[in-house]
Structure formats: C-alpha cells, structure tokens
C-alpha cells in the first residue's frame, strides 16, 4: 500500500513537471548550390543545432537543393551543411522570434573537396563492433555472412555471446539473459529463446546491443545482462524494402514500407519464414542407488522438421506540434514449430536382461502467437533533452502444446500403447509506465558539468492460465482412449510487479562520466491448481542499485568501472507444472515454487579507437548469483528421469573478453572476438559442485572488390558449457559469402555457404548426479546454402528526428 501511494505521488509530480509551455514555432528555408558550377546540391544534410552543438533536428535538401525545417521553437540556433565530396559549412547564428517566425537564409555555396571525399570513403564505414559507453553494439547490417540466415547466425558473431547448435544462448557463460526486440520484450523470445532466435530472420536485424551493466531505468530482470535486438527501420519519406531468401535450411520473404507527412507517419512491415531442423541424438544412462548401478537405458532419436511462421507490425505517429508526439502501434507474431521425432528406447538390468524395448513415433507441435498494442504520449520541451512520457501496453499470448504418441515393440508394427496430450495456455498482460527526464548544466571555475536526472514508475499485471490433459490407451487401440486424471490439471497464475526508479548521470568537459541510480521492485504472485484446489502465494521486494564510472583520455581511450545488482524472476514456463511425457524415460516439468535469483555483477572495461576505423574493447568481470536456478534431473528406481528447474544455491563466474577490429585500408575489414570465463556452481542441499573454464573465439574477414563486389568469411569455435550436473563438448561453424550490389545499390544479391565441407557437427555431453551418470552424442546438420535478393525503393531523407517511445518490459514473460 505504501508503494501504491508513493506511485501516486510520483505520478502527480510528473504531471506537474509536464505542464504545457508555449508551442509557438517558426521555419527556416534556403537552398544549397555548388560554388563553382552553381548547380543544386541534392540530398545534402542540413543539421539544426543549439549554440553549444547539440542536435535539435535535421533534414536533407531535395532534388533542386532546396530545404525547409519546420516547427522550430523560437530561439537562436546554428546550421551545419554537410555532403560527401564537399567541405562542411556552418552558419553560427540564426534567430527565430515572434517578430521573425520565418527565416530564409537564401543560397548557401558549398565548396568541393576531393581530399575530403577520399577521407569519407575510409572513415565513413561503420565499425562492425562499437562501444557506446553503456553498451557494446554489433552492427549486423555490415556483415554479409548472415544475410538470409536467422537471428542465431547474428548472435553468434556478437562479443560476449555464445549460441550453440541447438540455439541455446549464453552471455559470459550464463544463460540468464533478458532479450529485447527494439527495446521491448517479445513473447516468442520470453517463451523459448532457443527456438525463437532460430526462427527470426537475420534480414530484419540492424544491430545487436549488449548491455552488461544495465542502469536503474531498465527493469531489474536478467542476471547476466540485457540483449537488445534492433530491427531495421525505414528512413523518413516514402520508401521501403523487399527481401526474398531461398535455401535448403532457411527460406523467407518479407518487406516494409514507410510513409511520412508533416504531422502523420505510417510504417508497416511483414515477414514470413521457414526453418528446417535436422539431427539425431544418442544417449546411455546408468541409474544408481547408493552409488551402485541398477539399470542401463540406451536411446536414439532422429528428427527432420520444418517450422513455419510470420509476423507483422504497424505503427502510426501523430505530431500535433514540434513538442508533442502521440504514437499507436500493433504487432503480431505467430507460427507452428513441430518437434516430431522417432525414438528408440531400451532399458535393461546391469546383468543384460531387457526390461523394456520399444519404438515411439512422436508428433509434437507448438502453435504459438502474440498480439500487442501500444499507445503512448511523449512531451518534449524547449530545453533539449527534457522529456515526459506516458506509455501503455496490452498483449495477449496464446501458447499451446500438443503431442500424440504411438508406441510399438521394437520388432513389431502393432501399437501397444497410445498417448495424446494437450496444454492450452494464455497470458494477458497490462502495463502502465510514466517517465521524466530533466537535463541541466552547471559551470565551475575549472570545468563544465552536464547532468541528466531520470525517474519513473511502472505497473505490470499478468494473468496466465494453463489447462493440460493427458489421454492414454494402454491397449494400443484408438477406441480405448481415457483421461488420466493424475496427470491432468488446470493452473491459474497471477503476477503483479510495481516498480519505481531514479537515476543520475553526470558528464564533465574533462571527459569524466558518472551514472548512479536505484530501482525498487515489488512482486506479488498467486498460483492456483484449480483441479486439485491447491493454492500458493508469494511476495518479495528488491532494491537494485547501479553505479558506473568512466574516464576518457586523449579523446579515444576510455576506462569504465561498474557495479549493479540484478533480479531474475522465474519465467512463466519455468513455473508451469505441465509435464511432458512424450519420452516416458525423460519427463520434463516446471516448478511453481521457484524463488527469484539475485545477482551481483562488477565489470572493468577499456576501449579505444583509431581514425582509420580500428577499435579495441576489453573487459574483466565478476558475477555471483544467489538462489541460482538450474534445470536438474533425478532418476528413480524404474530408470525414469524427472527434469525440473530448482534453486540450487550459488553460482559464480569470473573472466574477461575482448574484441579487436582492424581496417588496414578501405577494402579490408578484420575483426576477432574472444572470451574466457571460469564458472563455479555449488548446491549445499544436493551436496553437488561443478566448475570449469569456458572459452570461445570468432574471427571475421571481409574484402571489397571493384564494381560493388564483396566477399566475407567468418567462423566460431567454443569449448562448450558447464552446469551443476554436467558438461558438454565444444563445437564450431564457419561460413563464406559473396555479395553484389547493382542498380545504384538499390538491389543486392548475396550467396551464403555455411560449413560447406562438413554436413554435420557433432557434440558430446556428460552428466552426473547421485542417482545417475549419462553420456550423450548429438549430430546437427549445419551445412547449408542460401541465396538472398533485396531491393530498396522510394526516397529517403532525415526528416523528423523525434522517436516514438514504447513500453519495455525487460522482465520475465511468456508461458509454456
């Protein structure tokens, strides 16, 4: 209740701070011409800045060299004109007032500079990896080898991230990562990240941000950090793109279109995709009682599945004046990813006597979907950087699982057992959020201090339901199906999260930077097993501090130190008690009684850049997680393994990573990512401990030929995983691509070859626990070829620099 009143007080404060001010605006016009030929200079950049150099907005000149900047708040500004092959030019003072609301600066002469042109060709290439202070950015659009692939191909290139061949994602050895798409959560990412990143097309990804020490404005979710996948956005104007990919493992078709007027902007995008998953698994598990073997289970399975899905997004922005924006957006994901397989299973005693020997044909499908609606208002002020916003979001996520099993003896074609299961679940989520940003400057005798204060409140309500039933026929006949009440139930779950934050950022002219903040989150949980009339409740609150200190030397050397805490609420599908019996010897289920994790993370980082495009980033980190969640297995006397997530105790990671990027000339780009960490896991309750080194490295090379040709090669090799109950072996991949631009770079054709000399990649794993030891061998088909055609159409310009804001629920979400 105290937090509720605190929220009301904070919100009232925000509203008072957001009182409207004058919206009287003016306009600046003019034209750009070549100083020698007097011909117009089309598509040049015109930037409107404050007198201290901060960008306010910008446009580009039209085909006749003319430009017009609309809805400028009265005041004094400077104009900067830039274009490739011309020297930059600046007009130091242009004043708009009530007496002079329209200013025509006339004709501006731009002077050609061939030397500048050659420099732009070298420096203008964006580096593959950039350090943005609070985050590391991987510019995916600069990497041709991922064209036509999936998000998994992109994330394998990103420093500090590792994606195995089954799609499992980890950051610095930890799988507890919050994945955002354009700064907000995606239901498919929350539900099952491993499958999601294998289905999301790489063509739509512009960049990936890795945030290892998130500030107070981010939800406290994600122990290892936050990954933000930025999708490509159309520029202002009327323009768009179309993409078509054909291949043996990946296929997709999609595009986007953007139309923007003076006050109204509309953007739409659609994409449909297919992903093929081929592989096989073999395992051998020995059950133990008091350390002595009692039975041996040998299994083999194979799969060949094609998943189909798609998504669409629409956003509508309305600017009633230069200081306000109202935004409405809607998006939808959906698809069906089957996981059909053939399973052979044999259980025998240690003396060799066969107890069970059967084959199972498993038809497993997972139709999923998500619809989301955002409505928001953003209020800017005359003072650059000051902002107030009110955002709301509603999303609905049906997420269903169905499987059908036909079991026959190994040497028979007559079924002896049938089973079918249905899990129908949904998640309705409502979110309200309001934020306020207030910048100010202080001048001292020796320095200039720039400050930014941010604060906000947020409320999330999640209502989740899951109804699961299992029918079985012990005779193998369809007519004998009957409900198994012991394995069926109805589960209802409600989660409410109320939070507030305040953060403070200071930058000095001497290149010192300090960020400090705190976030308070209160969580209330109610669970109800309707069929068995069993309920449970849980509530907890957390105060999450964050601190980041940085210093830049000689304009290009930066050292940073940071500390933060993170909380990890169990994902909804970690909690869902639905039991997957598709493999009767390996049963999986959620755990509704999980407690949240709390992580302490410290990092020291260094970065530097060269004018020729080279860069170097390195970091040392330490991370400790209390109440760590791990998927654990136990084997009973019948040789059946039950796997469920549990709070094991403590896990810790220590290590470092670095990225180096070199551009010896304008044709060559070379980069190398590497990471090394030591992971230690300990469970006092289970009296188990495991530790070991984890490392990985990924090189990347590209070369630009004349006539818009480019080739690129990349690869990865990693050491595998370490968990409380086991370890997996290392694996690798390599790829080459060739890209050709034509029709004035509007059209692009890209050919990709992945693992051309190896059809499959093999991994091994070992598990151990007081009740069993096991070994497994997996083969993944990873050799593929794909051809992608992309075409851009329409006109593009800088347009309005304002960005629409949306809710960003960077905490747990989704259902299973």
TrEMBL record:
Recite the UniProt keywords alphabetically.
Cell outer membrane, Membrane, Receptor, Signal
Entry-linked InterPro entries: Beta-barrel_TonB_sf (IPR036942), CarboxyPept-like_regulatory (IPR008969), OMP_b-brl_3 (IPR041700), Plug_dom (IPR012910), Plug_dom_sf (IPR037066)
- Primary location: membrane
The TonB-dependent receptor plug domain is annotated at: 141-226
At the top level, the lineage of the source is Bacteria
**Entry GO terms, CC:** cell outer membrane
Which compartments does it reside in? Cell outer membrane
**Keyword Signal (UniProt):** yes
Outer membrane protein beta-barrel domain residues: 380-791
Signal sequence segment? 1-18
PANTHER family for this protein: PLUG DOMAIN-CONTAINING PROTEIN, TONB-DEPENDENT RECEPTOR-LIKE BETA-BARREL DOMAIN-CONTAINING PROTEIN
- State the name under which the record lists this protein: TonB-dependent receptor
Question: Which taxonomic lineage is given here?
Answer: Bacteria, Pseudomonadati, Bacteroidota, Cytophagia, Cytophagales
